[in-house]
Amino acid sequence: MTTDQSDAPGGTGPAGDDRTTAEGGAADSTGTGAPVTGRTDPEQSGPGEPERAGATATGSPPADAAAGKPAGTTTGEPVTATAKPTAATTGGPAASPDGEPAGSTPTRPDPDRWEAFGPVPERQPTRLDRVRRRLGRFAGHEWTLAALGSLALAVLLTWPTLRYPLYTLPQDYWDPSLQSWQMAWSGHALLTDPAGLFQSNTFFPEPWSFAFSDMLLGYAPAGLIGTGPEAAVLRYNIVFVLAHALATFGAYALARQLGSGRVGAAVAGVSYTYAPWLLAQAGHLHIVSNGGIPLALAMLARGHGWSLRHGYRPERRRTGWAYAGWLVAAWQLSLGFGIGLPFAYLMAGVVLVAAVLWVARRPVFGARLLLADLIGGAVFAAVGALLSIPYFKVAELHPNAQRTIGDIAIYSPPVSGFFTAPGESRIWGSLHEGARAALPWPPEMTLLPGFVLYALALGGLFFSVWRLRHRLLLLAGVVVTMALAMGTRLFDGTFTYVPLFDHLPGWNGLRTPGRMMLWATLLLGLLAAGAVSAFGERVREIAAERPPYRPGPWLRLATLVPLLLVAVEGLNSTPHPVVPAQPAALRSVEGPLLVLPSSQNLDQPVMLWTTTKFQQVVNGGSGFTPDQLDRVRGLTLNFPDAASVQQLRDLGVRNVVLLRDQLAGTPWERVVDTPVHQLGIAREEAAGVVVFRL
């Protein structure tokens, strides 16, 4: 019987695959039915795969051929009469049942029956998976956790600032009202008349009135959002909380960059922000807005590859961080010179030291980093110079705005002030009531940075990750800044504060030397961070000496005790009074106008009330009282009378508003209802106020 080549043993089978035997011998391609060596086990075929031709053990013809059937057919199945076309019948190469040329590689691999037992192939991540991984890494990063922790702690330790943020202000509603107006005015001026920024709507008709106190100009972007007193109060409270968060984060970043451990850096951040003495400054946003100081120093140190613990490491230099540090420093300076001026002189000293080091050890600084310092330092100096121009104008126009040594002596604290807490301290406030009574001016003389901080800093002198010379330098910085904080109390300031007052430009504008305690607090925090970091490292060493080679829960908790104690000592009992409601008449009365009664404290809420229309008002409150406003307050004691009406008309005032709820015990209580038609002015009653139209 003659068979097609496609059915011959060892030829191209039904699946169209050319196979070899297990022994490596080639199948016969002559079509003569010659036996092949070796053995092919039918069970080795894949599921559903036809049995291979020529699979007998002895080399005899296949069973199908022996039974008189064509080779390759299955027993019990009929043989079709028509065979597949072959090369002999078509004149071309033989084709497989799949339509492929004979001898070609199959397009689909044979399925593997053991595939289900193999390892699952790794799934390639999708774009969404990559985004999720990046977000996860970002959320778990140290700096993300530090920022979120600083924010959460700020909300907690300034509570109840955000309880009623539209209606209350921390500590009192005098200076916070002024500063709420400052942020609102800067945003309004940038939107309407940037060139008139320093010619504010208050203290009419005085020029440069926006520079009568620290301007908080760096918060101007926040002033672009919202209008009116409620928006201004809400803005103030939010910025107040964020300022605390930034201070904690900045001091944490500085301590970490210098080489502290995480817990030690957290101690430095919390102690710097929530020191008990700062609770008395809750009404001074320009003082609690100090986070840019340590943050700028941290960025500059990182950009220069320098740390207190490891010294200079040129391979860690990053020019971008240096630029960022200078920009943050310039922003901090724009918040005010109250704490910005000492910072500016510190930065000048840093630049001087860096220049000397560059000349002496030129390989330490690269050319690009030097260029970054030159450009960044120029930007910082330019911001300081531009912001100082209005203040020099004010000093020229108002000689009474300049401070004297006598003014400094009024606010200079004694040594006992460094161990006395303000009344806003929840822990020490009531206990130190007697000590505060002995101080001439407690709000600026209660300078306790925290007894826990004192103890940790003292321990840091003997047990620390810092080198001994660095500890001594930090201690020297603490002593110097505390001596400056005493003003004229230490040897009359002859060797400390007075030389700075006499010779450093702008220093005579600083009224309260006690605010130098900010620098002492930061340095004490760094000393404490060194001690806490050394304690944490010792705990890990102890744990490594015995199984399970990691600190137990009690040891881990012990490393957090200093942080908890520092945070507890910063708890506050700061009052949050309700801001006086804006009289409805002030939403419509045109300026220039005068609101009576007028005084330093009463005028600051008036400034806040003008944030609806920003009409010009004679009223204003600041660090000093201009002579013009002082005269107006004196001549209007008899208002309404002919002399005061004429004086106000000459000044340009069009309307006078008397607040009925504040007239008790004042000269206007008796004359507010007196007829005024003989004076040629109109009198109108409004809700809670009397409006005189001049």
UniProtKB/TrEMBL annotation:
Protein name: 4-amino-4-deoxy-L-arabinose transferase
Origin: domain of life: Bacteria
The entry's keywords: Membrane, Transmembrane, Transmembrane helix
Disordered as annotated region, ranges: 1-125
Membrane spanning residue stretches: 143-162, 233-254, 343-360, 369-392, 447-465, 472-491, 516-536
Biased composition annotated in UniProt, kind: Low complexity: 61-95
Keyword Secreted: no
